[in-house]
Amino acid sequence: MPSIHGYLTQAILLILVASSVASVAASYILFRGEMRAVYDTQLATVSGVVSGIISNTTTDDQLKNIAEQLSLQTMETHFYRINHPIIDGPEAEVLRKKPVSPFPSNDNTKSAFAIAIWSERGQPRIVSHTWLRERVKPIPFPGHAGFWWENYHGVTWRVYCRFDSDSHNWIMIGLRRNVLVQLSSRMVLAEWTADALSVVLAALLIYNVIRRAIRPINMLSKQLKRRDEQDLSPVKKEVPIELDGLKTSLNDFMERLNKAIEQERRFTADAAHELRTPLAALKIHLDNIRHAPPEKAALSLEKIRLGIERLQRVIDQLLTLAHVDRHTPTEKSLIGLYPIAAQLAGEMLPIAEKRGQQLSITGLRQITIKANATETGILLRNLLDNALRYTPEGGTVELHLAEELNGAPSVSVIDDGPGIAPELIDHVTDRFRRGNNPDMASGSGLGLSIVSGLLKSQQATLSLDNIPTGGLKAKVVWNNKAH
């Protein structure tokens, strides 16, 4: 992925260049239109001036003098007498043989403008040199007034023609089109040059401004790069407002990561302790068997069996807890709670009977939740197992299915055991945390931790309440109503 610096610089420069090109193109079009309007006004003004200096009493000599004056001022002009040109005889022959460049160089202003005057009947009286391609054959008589574009021998002219009612002459003034184009091009070139210099200057400024703007990001990156992998302390460096959200999110993430790592460390240490203890006990009992009489060896063998069962249970629960901690999404569907509860009660009934305990299911039989059946079974199994282990011999454990007042399905596991001390009730879901009397149960302290880990996936809540007459009520309420 490209850098922010490079991306912003390129994007802004492209916008500037595109805007500059569009501005130059628009200026060129608008300027040509404005220049044409200005020159149209000038053509009409010159036509009016010429109209003011001739009249119906103007003689040929006066017209010739006007032609000479126009030649000296702005345009080389020839005078025509009625029916034949003033240039005649040997002079005309010399002009015919003279190389003709009807459109001299761009710097010759005499070639930019042209004038032609016709009599009322269309006979030429005065014609500019550039409108005399054949020297004696001038530009065609227009016969109408107004502005238009005229093409004469491959060159386009902007012309204005009017009929002077005072002198009864047609007066036409023209301006070469390439004059307008060249002037517009020069103006646009000047503007483009200025814009190009502006873009270059803006590019340098933008580059430095963006580099300065992203400097806090680079500094933050360098600060994090210099950290040790064990350093998960919050970032305290001041950052711009735009990066404050990133800083807050980064600090929150590191705090959660730190808690997770610390939790894993505690879990590893506790798991090592929980595994080390039964293994050490097994070793002791094996040593006893080697040196003990048969009756004591049998007792040690029984203790070894119980130790192996406890060790197997710890390992199973550790694997379950590791699976729960991965937060792997599971497929949910509509499931009935009663069949799952009945199956689990049947599986755990031999354990209850062995200890003289009564295990029963009460409440609703038709109750449905939207959840994963496997996870629901693990959740209920751990609640039942926990209740059976902490309920004394001859006690009772009840699995009660019901609906709350708001219609939410719930399962309560009720026992008549010792309950939980009030100061421990908020911590019994911690890993390897046992209840009031750990010695009376062979549990590992992971059952309620597994239940707590499954609650989020199940969209459920757990409440633990001591019963005044003795015992504990563990209730799970699902927040998703299945209909």
Structure description:
The chain has 483 residues and is α+β, with helices and mostly antiparallel strands. The chain folds into 3 domains: 6-186, no CATH class; 241-325, Helix Hairpins (Orthogonal Bundle), CATH 1.10.287; 333-478, Heat Shock Protein 90, CATH 3.30.565.10. Helix content is 52%, strand content 18%. The chain has 10 helices and 14 strands. It has helices at residues 4-53, 60-73, 90-97, 177-213, 215-225, 241-291, 294-325, 337-354, 373-390, 447-458, and strands at 77-81, 84-85, 113-119, 124-128, 146-152, 155-164, 169-176, 333-336, 358-363, 368-371, 396-403, 409-415, 460-466, 472-478. The strands form 3 sheets. Strands 2-1-4-3-7-6-5 form a 7-stranded antiparallel β-sheet. β13 (460-466) and β14 (472-478) form a beta hairpin. The chain is rod-shaped, with a radius of gyration of 53 Å. It starts with a helix and ends in a 5-residue tail after the last strand. The relative contact order is 0.07.
Describe what is shown at a glance.
This protein is an alpha+beta fold and 483 residues long. It has 10 helices and 14 strands.
What labels describe this entry?
483 residues; alpha+beta; Helix Hairpins; Heat Shock Protein 90; 3 domains; five-stranded mixed β-sheet
Q: Could you outline the blueprint of secondary structure elements for this entry?
A:
Blueprint: H1 4-53, H2 60-73, E1 77-81, E2 84-85, H3 90-97, E3 113-119, E4 124-128, E5 146-152, E6 155-164, E7 169-176, H4 177-213, H5 215-225, H6 241-291, H7 294-325, E8 333-336, H8 337-354, E9 358-363, E10 368-371, H9 373-390, E11 396-403, E12 409-415, H10 447-458, E13 460-466, E14 472-478
Parallel strand pairs: 9-11
Antiparallel strand pairs: 1-2, 1-4, 3-4, 3-7, 5-6, 6-7, 8-10, 11-12, 12-14, 13-14
